[in-house]
Design a protein that fits this description.
The complex is a heterodimer of chains A (771) and B (438). Chain A has 27 helices and 18 strands. With 771 residues, chain A is α+β, with helices and mostly antiparallel strands. Chain A has five domains: 108 residues, Cytochrome Bc1 Complex, Chain D, domain 2, CATH 1.10.760; 174 residues, no CATH class; 143 residues, Toxin - Anthrax Protective Antigen, domain 1, CATH 3.90.182; 219 residues, no CATH class; 67 residues. In chain A, strands 1, 2, 4, 6, 7, 9 and 12 form a seven-stranded antiparallel beta sheet that branches. In chain A, helix 3 packs across helix 23. Chain B is elongated. Chain B contains nine helices and eleven strands. Classes of the chains: A alpha+beta (771), B alpha/beta (438). The interface between A and B is large, with 66 and 60 residues.
């Protein structure tokens, strides 16, 4: 009943009511459960344990899932007990299915038996890196990433870079120039030596190592993230080398200052400048315009220490464990941060150098650093411990600053962000919001609002949250959610540049990924931010390569253009070629991959790992078979059916799209059958034909809405949604519908409701304790 | 204390960009060292702008010779001295004499064509080959018995903040110049950074425990386990930091005078600091190969502490008739000889760790220059002065060679390290094989 739209819900309730009266008393249901219990005790308990917890050495996995009772019963009838399914069929199977479902199988039963709680956690790796970067940058200036889609270019007629010599000033969307012997402006730039500068910022969409590549026949200097000396520092041209590469570790969602200077010297004949990069998991390419802006940026302190990966076993990263590895990484990182930060401090607090003359200013710096790291002002006692004692016991102020910073960075007050006031005060609320929306520490503005008690009293709360949702850090966090939700990590056979699809190369793949991310950004950050549009849109962001490959009208580039894309066939993300190709094999589609994605991400269904290992049937075994037929054959064993009954029929609906995401009507000269169906958790069956109808179903399905809300919530908060009370999902769902499925508002709502719920839970706890 | 470490330096110093090195592992120094074979070492010292030949080269040939004024500081080590007159840098091609003098000195290879325009010759780029010190270092590093933590260390004194053909003599390969570290604090941090970190970390353990104990009381019983685990990690770390580190360097971390700025007048101080660090890192067996580069080719040190106010390179262009200039150039070169002698003295006075004799017995110090003579810019008679032992050369001699290519000297250097090469650098100049110096 919880997973159907309102109107239906009413009808359903009515139907239940009628059923109830038909069977006239509740004893019937009781009897049914009692019967199920007896059957379970006699036939199932040996393998599954008395509470479905499983039995080591026989069948260790717990009996949990989200099939409807009817489906569960059908499966038991066919497959259980193993080896002799005929002993439990029909009414017996119904009874035992009802019992299992009620007692421990369903999510409701599981929450009832073991209510999840908000886990006390440390910072995740992502949160750690973000927190350090923001913490340090709160002592610097800040700027916004502009929308110029290119770098500010200045061409001078001489080596003296002043106004008089400036010949051209413009935005260059990409730096890809072979000016030859004539130079960039043969009429106005005629001196034997001159300089060209491209400046602005570059946005890193992912965390990882970026390789920057400059190709030039001239002297060239590339600075990224304010690194000095330049990352690429080619004053000396030597031999015929023109290409230079250097790697840099960057954090996602941040823009980094970039400056390329190319100087023609007397001895250079030709002039050229090419600026490329190779992003993590990406291909070498000219830095695309949508990653460039003309705005200058302060430099960021990026923690490069390797950390052990976070626990992701429940579908989202969370910091519920500490290990020796993690502890050591935190130590190494603390030293790294201190070493990188120390030389910057004089500039940040405007002193000539770190020495005893400036002791008071240095103490103040350490105090501010601790305040921002701990997300609240220091008590006198803490100030004594973290600041005064370090200065008193160190031989010099420089040593004191180093010790104080190391201590702050190793402190549980920094590393365990949920340590806070027992009442959940304004500062805790600020910390909660910053973690939820940015995976980081509160900025000075937020701390100031907390100091003035403007958050809990609400007068400035919405304003703050609104501001925070629009911040680039929130955008980065949202992007990362969609990467997970859309299974980017699972795209293993994306390279299909074989004989069949020679043009489907790494460059096209990289463009497709950008295209999908641009599409999602565009919808998410539009005013109506409508979730349904994700599943409906009939256009695509196309690069020249994408347009060419999918037969779209020509796109000139270098920027992506939004163009109509087979409106009669396409349905937003569901039919975006990046997703379709990612969830496919090299030479054939994979309805299973697609179906698993639809089941888990779009509908939030629970799937167990396959019980038996099955080698996929090779497509060439029987060339007359369609993929659909082959998959049906392969998953025919009864052990497969409990999950593949769900998976396959969702996946089949996308069969009109081949392994590179092109629309097709036939496969192996046979017409495509793209019909499919879905049986909801309540046992309702929905049938659809092709992507369009699937999309229509999903946009209306309350199960899909709830699945989205739950996954988004858990990704943002890093805690199980059930830990916030049974009403949380209902309230969010209700508001989601009332807000026309506005995802930005949902995000805001999740942040606010979770924080206030956490506060009221804490207060209850305090009250209980005091009683 | 001065903090000048740059981001990428940090990475390099921490080791190959991987920052996951555990802190408690200490320094992998003595762990590598093999004590059964002799530790053979080599130091190349560079000073620029040619010498004053008549005040430099001994007139006599053979074992009986008198030291000229510039080499006077080597008097105590005359029996360990070998002067090689008549070695020429014959490498032709692009670049002026200063550039080729510098870029081909240790590489024996031509410069690539490029955009760096020298005085009057064609412009040039970097050297097209690796340098002899790196060649030998690679050989030593490939053998577990001679492998050390760094393999080689590149020291500098007052090297300009500018990467070009005049400022680089060490090459890891074609087009791969290696920048010398001319900041003693940066060198100290490269050598001992982790040790310093251990000291700092040790000091914060107590306050950290202190605060953890307080926090423990603030959280619920279920949530306490994470903090308890944290506390036990801190205890372990504290215990380990208290212990004498078994992999420790076995000697005190050198203490540098604080706040010595990199300015011309501090050159003598910086020189001494760098030489002390060099000796220290040999003693700790951090490396067996080192280079020490004073300024750069065309270097303009103003040796005010000698009462000389003109820049070195400017003076070196003065004609021989300018006796004042000749006198000053002699003083300047003598000062450089004193620096070499200071290093030699330190090595001679340090017993070889784990063996008999002094460190000098196993270390060859080679003093060289990019030019034979400043005002003529000749690449003939390049100064090569060797002091020390361990190469199997017959020392205590003044040799007069007949215009032999310096590539052949490089061949005999690698040969001394048990690494026989037929050619090094440009093969055309390797004709008669290694110079016979034994």
């Amino acid at each position: 009943m919880r997973f159907v739209p309102n109107k239906l819900r009413f009808l359903f309730a009515l139907a239940l009511l009628i059923l109830f009266f038909t069977f006239s008393d509740s004893a019937n249901a009781e009897d049914q459960l009692e019967k199920g219990r007896k059957i379970y005790q006699s036939q199932c308990v040996d393998c599954h344990g008395d509470k479905g917890q499983g039995v080591e050495s026989v069948y260790p996995s717990p009996l949990i899932g989200d099939l409807a009772v009817r489906e569960l019963s059908a499966y038991i009838s066919k497959a259980m007990p193993e080896g002799e399914p005929e002993t439990c069929v029909a009414a017996d199977a119904d009874a035992v299915a009802a019992y299992i479902h009620q007692e421990f199988y369903s999510i409701v039963a599981r929450v009832r038996n073991q209510p999840p709680s908000v886990d006390f956690s440390r910072l995740t790796v992502r949160q750690y890196r973000n927190s350090v970067a923001d913490l340090v940058n709160s002592f610097r200036w800040s700027n916004n990433f502009g929308n110029e889609q290119g770098l500010k270019a200045r061409y001078y007629k001489s080596n003296r870079q002043n106004k008089e010599n400036l010949v051209i000033e413009r935005i260059d969307p990409v730096v890809n120039f072979d000016f030859g012997e004539a130079g960039p402006d043969p009429e106005n730039i005629t001196e034997p030596e001159y300089a060209m500068i491209w400046e602005g910022s570059v946005l890193a969409a992912e965390t990882g190592l970026y390789e920057f590549i400059v190709d030039s026949e001239n002297q060239c200097y590339l600075r990224v993230n304010g690194v000095d000396p330049p990352l690429i520092n080619i004053r000396v041209k030597s031999g015929d080398q023109t290409e230079y590469r250097e790697e840099l570790f960057l954090l996602e969602g941040r823009a980094y200052g970039i400056r390329l200077e190319v100087r023609k010297s007397k001895t250079d004949k030709a002039v050229s400048a090419h600026l490329k990069w190779k992003p993590p998991h990406g291909t070498e390419q000219y830095i695309p315009p949508h990653c460039l802006s003309a705005s200058p940026m302060p430099s960021w302190l990026i923690v490069e220490t390797d950390f052990p990966p976070d626990d992701k076993s429940v579908g989202y990263e969370r910091g519920v464990q500490v290990s020796q590895d993690w502890f050591d990484a935190v130590t190494t990182a603390a030293v790294e941060v201190t070493d990188k930060l120390m030389p910057e401090i004089p500039g940040m607090i405007k002193i000539p150098e770190i020495n005893d003359e400036h002791k008071e200013k240095l103490k103040q710096f350490c105090t501010d650093f601790a305040t921002r790291a701990f997300r609240r002002p220091l008590s006198d006692e803490l100030k004594q411990l973290y600041i005064e004692r370090q200065f008193a016991e160190s031989p010099s102020s420089a040593v004191a600053v180093k010790r104080s910073l190391l201590l702050i960075l190793k402190s549980p007050r920094f590393l365990f962000p949920y340590l806070g006031n027992e009442q959940l005060d304004d500062y805790d609320l600020a910390a909660w919001m910053a973690l939820t929306l940015w995976d980081s520490v509160p900025d000075p503005k937020l701390l100031e609002a907390a100091e003035k008690h403007q958050l809990i009293e609400k007068d400035r709360f919405t304003w703050q949250v609104d501001r925070m949702v629009k911040d680039p850090r929130a955008k980065a966090k949202v992007r990362q959610f969609f990467r997970g939700w859309l299974y980017f990590d699972h795209f293993s056979e994306l390279s299909k540049a074989d004989d069949e699809h020679p043009e489907f190369d790494a460059e096209l793949v990289s463009d497709l990924k950008d295209s999908l991310e641009l599409f999602i950004d565009d919808i998410f950050w539009s005013d109506d931010s409508d979730y349904r549009k994700l599943l409906q849109a009939e256009s695509i962001y196309a690069s020249p390569e994408i347009a060419k490959f999918y037969g779209l009208p020509e796109v000139k580039g270098p920027t992506f253009e939004k163009v109509a894309f087979e409106p009669e066939n396409r349905a937003g993300i569901l039919t975006h070629p990046y997703l379709l190709a990612g969830l496919a094999y090299e030479n054939t589609t994979s309805p299973i991959h697609r179906g698993v994605f639809l089941s888990r991400s779009l509908l939030g269904r629970f799937l167990k790992p396959p019980p038996i290992a099955v080698t996929p049937t090779p497509p060439d075994l029987d060339p007359t078979m369609t993929t659909r037929e082959r998959i049906a054959l392969q998953t025919k064993p009864i052990a497969c059916s409990s999950c593949h009954g769900l998976i396959n029929h969702l996946g089949f609906t996308l069969e009109n799209f081949d392994e590179v995401g092109r629309y097709r009507k036939q496969e192996r000269n046979r017409d495509i059958d793209a019909s499919g169906y879905y049986i909801s958790r309540e046992g309702e069956q929905y049938r659809f034909q092709g992507a369009e109808e699937l999309s229509q179903f999903l946009t209306k399905s309350d199960e899909a809405h709830r699945a989205f809300i739950e996954q988004f919530f858990q990704y943002l908060i890093k805690q199980p949604i059930q830990a916030f009370g049974p009403e949380m999902i209902n309230e969010l769902d209700q508001d989601f519908a009332n807000n026309q499925y506005n995802m930005q508002k949902l995000m805001l709502n999740i942040a606010t409701k979770s924080a206030l719920r956490q506060r009221s839970m804490k207060q209850q706890l305090v009250e209980q304790t005091h009683k | 204390m001065k903090y000048t470490m740059q981001r990428r330096e940090f990475l390099k110093n921490a080791g190959l960009g991987a920052l996951s090195i555990p802190f408690l592992a200490g320094l992998p120094s003595l762990g590598y060292a093999n004590t059964t074979t002799r530790k053979q070492r080599m130091v190349v010292i560079f000073s620029p702008n040619g010498v004053v030949p008549q005040n430099f080269w001994p007139d006599e040939e053979g074992e009986q010779f008198a030291l000229k004024s510039i080499m006077e500081p080597f008097a105590p080590y005359k029996d360990k001295l070998l002067t090689l007159h008549g070695i020429c840098d014959k490498i032709q091609g692009d670049g002026d004499s200063h550039m080729r003098g510098m870029g081909c000195l240790l590489t024996g290879s031509e410069l690539f064509p490029g955009n760096i325009q020298g005085g009057s010759h064609t412009p040039a780029g970097w050297s097209s080959g690796l340098s002899i010190d790196q060649e030998i270092k690679n050989v030593l590093q490939q053998n577990p018995a001679t492998q050390t933590r760094f393999g080689s260390l590149e020291f500098g004194v007052m090297v300009p903040e500018r990467a070009d053909t005049w400022t680089r003599m060490v090459y890891a390969g074609a087009n791969k110049p290696i920048a010398p570290i001319d900041d003693p604090y940066q060198m100290l941090s490269k050598l001992y950074g982790k040790m310093k970190d251990r000291e700092s970390l040790k000091s914060i353990m107590d306050p950290l425990q202190n605060d953890l104990a307080k926090l423990r009381l603030m959280v619920s019983a279920e949530d306490r386990h994470l903090l308890d685990e944290q506390a036990s990690f801190v205890r372990d770390m504290e215990r380990e930091l208290q212990q004498e580190n078994p992999a420790d360097v076995g000697h005190a971390v050198p203490k540098l005078e604080l706040g010595v700025k990199e300015v011309n007048d501090n050159m003598p101080k910086i020189s001494k600091m760098q030489i002390d660090l060099l000796v220290n890192s040999f003693r700790a067996d951090f490396a067996r190969i080192a280079t020490l580069q004073f300024t750069n080719s065309v270097g303009q040190a103003k040796m005010s502490w000698l009462g000389i106010d003109e820049g070195h390179h400017g003076l070196s262009h003065e004609p021989d008739s300018n006796t004042d200039a000749v006198e000053k150039l002699t003083k300047i070169n003598t000062w450089y000889a004193e620096q070499v002698a200071y290093l030699v003295k330190q090595l001679a006075e340090t017993p070889e760790p784990g063996a008999s004799g002094s460190m000098l017995d196993n270390t060859m110090v080679i003093w060289t220059n990019e030019l034979g003579k400043g005002n003529s810019h000749t690449l003939n008679d390049i100064p090569f002065v060797m002091i020390g032992g361990g190469m199997g050369y017959k020392m205590g001699r003044s040799l007069k060679l007949n215009k032999v290519a310096h590539n052949r000297l490089h061949l005999s250097l690698t040969q001394s390290f048990g690494h026989d090469l037929k050619t090094f650098g440009n093969p055309d100049y390797c004709g008669d094989g290694p110079l016979a110096l034994s």
